[in-house]
Amino acid sequence: MEDCLAKKMEITVSEAEKRTGRNAVNMQETYTAYLIETRAVESQSEGQCAPVDSLWRRYSEFELLRNYLSATYPHIVVPPLPEKRADFVWHKLSADNMDPDFVERRRIGLENFLLRVASHPVLCQDKIFYSFLTQEGGWKEIVNETGFQLKVITVIVCLMTAVTQKYSNKHLSGCLRFTELKHYSDELQSVISHLLRVRARVADRLYGVYKVHGNYGRVFSEWSAIEKEMGDGLQSAGHHMDVYAASIDDILEEEEHYADQLKEYLFYAEALRAVCRKHELMQYDLEMAAQDLTSKKQQCEELATGTVRTFSLKGMTSKLFGQETPEQREAKIKVLEEQIQEGEEQLKSKNLEGRDFVKSAWADIERFKEQKNHDLKEALISYAVMQISMCKKGIQVWTNAKECFSKM
Amino acid sequence: AAGAPKPLPSSGPKSLREMPHPLATSSSEEMGPALTPSPDLLLPRSIADKDLSLPNGTPVDTSSPASSSSLLNRLQLDDDLDGETRDLFVTVDDPKKHVCTMETYITYRVTTKTTRAEFDLPEYSVRRRYQDFDWLRNKLEESQPTHLIPPLPEKFVVKGVVDRFSEEFVETRRKALDKFLKRITDHPVLSFNEHFNVFLTAKDLNAYKKQGMALLSKMGESVKYVTGGYKLRSRPLEFAAIGEYLDTFSLKLGTIDRIAQRIIKEQLEYLVELREYGPVYSTWGGLEVELSEPLEGVSACIGNCCTALEELSEDMTEDFLPVLREYILYSESMKNVLKKRDQVQAEYEAKLEAVALKKEDRPKVPTDVEKCQDRVECFNADLKADMERWQNNKRQDFRQLLMGMADKNIQYYEKCLTAWESIIPLLQDKPEAK
């Protein structure tokens, strides 16, 4: 990790700004732009303050970057972007993309994304990524010039073909690891989604419990007005009830960060799945190529020996309408032999590609696993710390209230 | 004219005069020098007079030496009997279910320990059911109409909604019945009431009840208090203030009751979600290898918080809400006593007016008008004294109640805190190289 970009360069997404502009169909739209600031790290150690470079990017440009990275490095578990639309919201949170809280959490999420890419041993060296951070104008053109969209299309076509052919990975041999991984990523997505949904409901209910206590504040105040000795105690206790009711807002806002950490790994599961899918498609491609080669070899053999072993339309028609001339047959055999040679070379390179892919993919998957275990542990610890803080606040407030009651 | 002191139903061979009881007297003329009222405490002569009765003719219970009289109340220097001077202790416990052919019901053991002479024995233990408490309360209301009688827990429960025989319900009721008797025990007048004595001591209460009913029917009186039909022009300021206070007080209590119920409801809904939340961590733990233990730990932790929350809600339902409701009932019965007082005053004022209109010889005020005046003044005095006592008890009761509520919440958070703190080391644990 010595040469990873994150060590050389300080990257922050420091601001978010509302903009209006014209979109592709010349309609006016409002969007948020994010300020990316970068600063070289090395010169700082010399006591100099390096200049900060900055440029503005909007969410769609981040998406473009990520799509490029996914297509260009299919064997890498590419870090995910923060969610496009607010999901798993509990009632107080807004689902509006323009909501300042949402924008703020997205800003943090985008910064996190850039830092993840910058600290990845492979991705950080990508030139397009570097220009994303440093080159304001003309970046889109550069990305498009890489022709990565073609790769995306190829993948999609392959996928559709595989689907129509009802290809199942039962055909794969020695790919148990990937099957298991795919299964794991599916389960992970499912369990984290469930967790986030229930957490949102839990937050909603907790909000209700705290807020109703605010009513005590009001009624204690009203009651204290008709009391002589009890009045002061009631009044001050009521104040603490108000404090209690208000405290939930900060508590739940902090918890949103935990939810965001979970969401990152929800989307990471998707990225993991993408790698598995790529592997599946490569295997499919390989098998198709192998099958094609086998059938060509068979055809060649039949032509050479004159025996028909497999059913083919050509074979039938030639039987029905008479055999070919020896010259025609020779020509066919030659074409086939050329194709077979090509096919064998292709198969060899595909096999090599496949093995390379498995090797590098698995290396990144191991890296990802370690990162995931570390990050999620940290997330759970910070969640526990949040709960502890909430409990301590609760004890404090009720102890204060108890003291007020004791003075009644 | 003062006669010999009337013997009490269960008093021993000693006569009242021989007993060094500070409140022992049946007429002002029999009071010893130590108990002579000071000149500024001018009181009508008819204190403890047998003729003292209510407009509806029901005789006021004067069989106890401390019958309703302001003199006696004022003589008592310390209204609240502290542990030193207390001579009567009553407890309600040990609920038992009885299954008979006709019905199933619960009885409670009522234990009495006393040094009072009004009791033959120093200790009693009897079994009573709710009906018996209800009977007692009615008797007290009848016989001590100028005093505030403590409330009983609600009589009727909607069958099917609340289980009358569940442990929680029975325990809640037991506590309320215990409180009821303790409040009577602490009252300087009510605790000497004859019916109270019988309630605490009689083996067969039903026989006594029937006796009482017979007596009443002999006199041809209805049990219910009949309003004289007199209209009061205006309530004296202090009683008007009490009335207003009680109105606002019961309103506020009603609001607090609703808030508390709402909180419990919200907590239970929160609990439902938590119960789904915890297990998801466990499911996730099943997927993982290194994260398995931490995730299981979090799941277990949330489970512990669920248990703590359940306990909090239960406590609030069983201990907090019933006491609130008791005080609302208390306020209602107190307002009724205020109305009765108004009636007594109204009758007096009406009779006074009638006399004025008749233009009779003024120097001699007719005796029945005098009696009305006595009644009003006694009622006012009793009520004021009881109100003071009630205010003080109320303050202590609510202090205890609200501190209890705060305590329960503190305990809940402490349980959760312990749970979360205990898994921090588990989460931070580095797995050993396998």
Note the topology:
The complex is a heterodimer of chains A (408) and B (434).
Chain A: H1 5-8, E1 9-22, E2 28-40, H2 42-45, E3 53-58, H3 59-72, H4 100-118, H5 127-134, H6 139-145, H7 148-164, H8 176-224, H9 231-305, H10 313-321, H11 326-406
Antiparallel strand pairs in A: 1-2, 2-3
Chain B: H1 70-75, E1 88-99, E2 104-114, E3 123-129, H2 130-143, H3 167-186, H4 194-201, H5 205-219, H6 237-287, H7 292-358, H8 367-428
Antiparallel strand pairs in B: 1-2, 2-3
Helix pairs in contact in B: 3-7, 6-7, 7-8
Structural description of this entry:
The complex is a heterodimer of chains A (408) and B (434). By secondary structure, chain A is mostly helical. Chain A is elongated, with a radius of gyration of 31 Å. A 3-stranded antiparallel beta sheet of chain A has the order 1-2-3. In chain A, α8 runs antiparallel to α9. Chain A has 2 domains: 166 residues, Phox-like domain (PX Domain), CATH 3.30.1520; 222 residues, Arfaptin homology (AH) domain/BAR domain (Substrate Binding Domain Of Dnak, Chain:A, Domain 2, Up-down Bundle). The longest helix of chain A is centred in the C-terminal third of the chain and has 81 residues. Chain B is mainly α. Chain B folds into 2 domains: 124 residues, 2-Layer Sandwich (PX Domain); 195 residues, Substrate Binding Domain Of Dnak, Chain:A, Domain 2. Chain B has a 3-stranded antiparallel beta sheet with strand order 1-2-3. Chain B is elongated. Chain B starts with 69 loop residues before the first helix and ends in a 6-residue tail after the last helix. The relative contact order of chain B is 0.10. At the A-B interface, α8 and α11 of A face α6, α7 and α8 of B.
Task: Supply database-style keywords.
heterodimer, A: 408 residues, mainly alpha, PX Domain, Substrate Binding Domain Of Dnak, Chain:A, Domain 2, 2 domains, three-stranded antiparallel sheet, 11 helices, 8% strand, elongated, B: 434 residues, 56% helix
